[in-house]
Amino acid sequence: MAERTTVDITDAALTQAARSLLDQLVADRVASALTAQDPTLWGERAEPEASIRLSWTTLHKSSRPLIGEIEALRTDLRSEGIDRVVLAGMGGSSLAPEVITGTEGVALTVLDTTDAGQVADALEGDLERTVLVVSSKSGTTVETDSHRRIFAKAFADAGIDPARRMVVVTDPGSPLADLAESEGYRKVFQADPHVGGRYSALTAFGLVPAGLAGADVARLLDQAAGAAETLSADSPDNPALRLAAALAAAHENGAEKVVLADTGSGIAGFGDWAEQLIAESTGKEGTGLLPVVVESPTAPGFADAGTDATTVAVGPSVEGAAIATSGPLGAQFLLWEYAVAVAGRLLGINPFDQPDVEAAKKAARALLDNPQALTGTEEPSAVIGAVEVYGPVGDSAATGTLSQVLREFVDGVAENGYLAVQAYLDRLDDASATLLRGELARRTGRQTTFGWGPRFLHSTGQYHKGGHRNGSFLQITGAVEADVPVPGRPYTLSTLQLAQALGDGQVLADTGRPVLRLHLTDRAAGLADVVRAVQELTR
């Protein structure tokens, strides 16, 4: 018997608050209209975008032909001894494949970074056994193009024909599709152009890299198909309508954050995928839902959540959870896609655009075009041990105490606001940076998010600029020991990484958001200093 997909609202007050919204969604036949891909559901302004972004509702059917194509290519690759899959992709092109393969326990090396160390580590893998999946909807993603160039040179230097080791996933007619054809890349998978990146888990973007790595993508589509009828029903028992109504009702009552904790779902890293879907779909026009992914249901932010947050258990319900969602991975993808799209209707926004994402990209490009702006024109406000401090530090610079610098900064976080930690580092070698989320949340009493840069720019970056204006931003950058040039481009990975950090920080500051950057002149020592300084904070 197939595992059921459910949404359990355990908070009685939230159930009551959501009831009228749920009844209205049923009366308006929103679920069936969404399944029928009705672009009028979000109003006249959203209709042009919605009309070309709704094919995800039937992907459990339309993606079936991919299964055979993926398996045939995987078989061919294996016959040549190629069994190591590296994925170059950002945002919607990498988050779903990572969840799928992590859940199934199959190996996939994901490059969603511009950190030179992390990319160098991927290059040190066995290139004789490696295929690179280059995944970009637009076909112009700068990080992904950089990875492609770097790997093409590495393959050629190793005496391997790069074209035979390149598999592309992109939209029809993109610059990447044209390049792949002209270069004779091994295979091009053209994704459905009527699906946005964050809704693309069940398109070629999610299925191709996961399937080539060995995940059972047919089962994933079966799981989604098993939930599709329930999710399209105009019924108060529809779990997607229940979830959307609960999230919107909570938002109306001041809970604009959604705290996600895994409670034994059996799904690896689901919160990271849901984070992009929620933040990029709803965080605009000064409103939205901020996803806060925490380590466990006992972590700060969940166990001690205040009235500004709704706690959601991904898996069985636990003490402290206002909502619990359950079901197999394919069904959970579809459940949350339906729920977030419907929540957009209730919030009065277009869930399919991302109007504030481009600003940080433009700022980074401007810095790349002006290398002088990246090489020392800005002096640190203070240098404390292995940490350079950039940004307003008040009187704390005179004390020489990093803890006081942080104390002054976090004291400025708005009441019921949030603190975003943005680490432009190596998420493998510098993994200890993730400790900062829980430590800061515990000591500030504020909801605290953590994102690896530039990965989060394709995820929560939209909310940071377009959502509720109550965030404060702690950037962490680090010195690079061994840089990696980007072939055919006038910059290295470290230059690109720093441009992305400074560009986003500039956009945030220009919109009145508080930004503090800590630059680690020695990564290991600097991270230890920062963690120690945070632990010295008192609430």
Automatic annotation (TrEMBL):
GO MF: carbohydrate derivative binding; glucose-6-phosphate isomerase activity; monosaccharide binding
Pathway noted in the entry: Carbohydrate degradation; glycolysis; D-glyceraldehyde 3-phosphate and glycerone phosphate from D-glucose: step 2/4
Keywords associated with the record: Gluconeogenesis, Glycolysis, Isomerase
One GO cellular component term noted in the UniProt record for this chain: cytosol
Enzyme Commission designation: 5.3.1.9
InterPro entries to which the protein is assigned, alphabetical: G6P_Isomerase, SIS_dom_sf
Stored Pfam families: PGI (PF00342)
Source organism superkingdom: Bacteria
Catalytic activity reported: alpha-D-glucose 6-phosphate = beta-D-fructose 6-phosphate
BP GO annotations: gluconeogenesis; glucose 6-phosphate metabolic process; glycolytic process
PANTHER family: GLUCOSE-6-PHOSPHATE ISOMERASE (PTHR11469)
Record-stated family: Belongs to the GPI family.
Protein name: Glucose-6-phosphate isomerase
